[in-house]
Amino acid sequence: MGMIQALRGTRDILPEEVAYWQWMEAIARDRLNRAAFREIRTPIFEQTDLFERGIGEATDVVGKEMYTFVDRGDRSITLRPENTAGVVRAYIEHSLFAQGGVQRLWYCGPMFRYERPQAGRQRQFHQLGAEVFGSRDPRADAEVIAVAIDLLQTLGLKTLRLSVNSVGTLSDRQHYRSALVDYFTQYQDELDADSRDRLARNPLRILDSKDERTQTISQAAPSILDYLADDSKHHFEQVQQYLNDLGIVHTIDPRLVRGLDYYTHTAFEVISDDLGAQSTVCGGGRYDGLVAQLGGQDTAAVGWAMGLERLMILLQGLHSTPATDLDFYLVSKGDRAEPQALKLAHQLRQLGFSVELDLSGSAFGKQLKRADRSGAIACLVLGDAEADQQQVNLKWLKTGTQESIAQSDIPTLADSWRQEVGRQGGRVKAEDEAR
Ligand code: ATP
Ligand code: MG
Questions:
Q1: Which of 202, 272, 278 to mutate to test the pocket of ligand 1 (most atoms within 8 A of CB)?
Q2: CA–CA gap between residue 232 and residue 264 (Å, rounded)
């Protein structure tokens, strides 16, 4: 029988890498909290209909990338390829608008798209996203962009580029759309097959074709910015002004578009030059038409989604593995020592320390070597001789100092140990900082 392996386009995230993920997630949670975003967790599968209506049938995602299946109750189900549609569904279903004012929500979790796997492109991947409901104010656009940039900078990513554009309103785009069709029709035979296909269905998407020849042709295509009505122009100018006020460097890219009817005004992307072909880390924009499109009341909305695998590629190039956060490594050998060690580990955990109990049963020497490699701040050693006297040996691994301690003194000593562990960079300190 062959070995069963993870499916193509999926990956195991092993404990060492999880340390990065947790670090990134903690920073994300903190930065989003600071901006008054609240987390929402929606199911990873939904009715297929939600995505067909919520993402649009003319998109690649719905047209070719969805994991759709019929369940045992004969319903068409889809693993979520993104989460804006799910969040909007929840917003409507639970009448979050009834809470009044502006709702700021964020999510984080796995998404599924049937794509050709390559660096930065998987079939199960993770997105962190933020959505703001209930404000047409261009400050909302600037605020969500600022939160994304602040988060990326806090993670240490300083060389990213922000592109912004406006796709105007549906009526702005109707004029633009026909100008685009006229323009691209002249070059019909030179376009890539996908783009030829889009000419009739979704001509705006030709502008983000990855085909080189098509890109060259797109260079001279009409610019959406020339088709914006005064209100749309004004909105876009205000967004840019606010970004400038916030000191957020950006460039205007008139070819940055979203092809669907419910997208309005702002579209933006954060791009890294260190990611090769899969260079977009974060994409977002305003979608004032989507809530109504999915059956809710007319509600303005703006948001973004970040691809966490791409972020992770960048972070691993920048930071070394976050240190393990082990305070004590507990070594024991002997019939009487081993049961005591189990209790001692439990007691120390209740006092707030992280403790790894060596369960190998190996000789002392081997266990002590493992203690050295564990990254723990201190090692506790318990043999039968110590056990008989209710004692334990403590060795501070970084300084080498050792002492023999009565086990009954541990509750009294815990405070000074916490300070010492904290001074030496252990977990206890990290907890204090978090408070
Ligand atoms: P791309 O042009 O790279 O296919 P997209 O326009 O399909 O991106 P969005 O739907 O806007 O991407 O999703 C937001 C972000 O999610 C992307 O910028 C990217 O970082 C990430 N992402 C999208 N698809 C994948 C995938 N298959 N694997 C890993 N990350 C992805
Ligand atoms: Mg894609």
A1: 278
A2: 9
Q: Whose CA is nearest to atom 20 of ligand 1?
A: 307
Residue 269 CB partners (closer than 8 Å, separation 6+)? 162, 163, 253, 256, 280, 282, 283, 284
Instruction: Estimate to the nearest angstrom the gap between the alpha carbon of 266 and the chain centroid.
Output: 21
Query: CB within 6 Å of ligand 1 — which residues?
Result: 82, 113, 115, 120-122, 125, 127, 278, 280-283, 305, 307, 309-310
Convert 69-95 to b/e letters by CB count within 10 Å (16 or more is b): eeeeeeeeebbbbbbbbbbbbbbbeee
Give CA–CA dist 286/262, Å, rounded. Answer: 9
List, for residues 409-421, the tens digit of each pLDDT value: 999 999 999 998 8
> Would you state the structure tokens that stand for residue 422, as one six-digit string?
């904290």
Give the phi and the psi of residue 365 in degrees, each rounded to 5.
-55, -45
Nearest to residue 10, comparing CAs of 110, 156, 80, 147? 110
Mean pLDDT of successive 10-residue stretches along the chain, which has 435 residues: 93 91 95 97 98 90 95 98 98 92 97 96 98 98 98 92 96 93 94 90 88 93 96 98 98 88 93 87 96 96 97 87 84 97 97 96 96 94 97 94 95 92 72 43
**What is d(CA 346, CA 320) in angstroms, rounded to the nearest whole number?**
31
C-alpha span between 352 and 359 (Å, rounded): 21
Ligand 1: which of 24, 127, 162 to mutate, most ligand atoms within 8 Å of CB?
A: 127
Structure tokens that stand for 256 in this block? 């940055």
Distance from the CA of 96 to the center of ligand 2, in angstroms? 30
What is the distance of C-alpha 320 from the center of its chain? 19
Q: How far apart are CA 23 and CA 45, in angstroms?
A: 27
- CB atoms near residue 24 (< 10 Å): 21
Q: Report the C-alpha gap between 36 and 39 in whole angstroms.
A: 10
Task: Name 156's Cβ contacts closer than 8 Å, sequence gap at least 6.
Answer: 315, 318, 319
Q: For residue 317, which of 163, 122, 148, 119 has the smallest C-alpha distance? A: 119
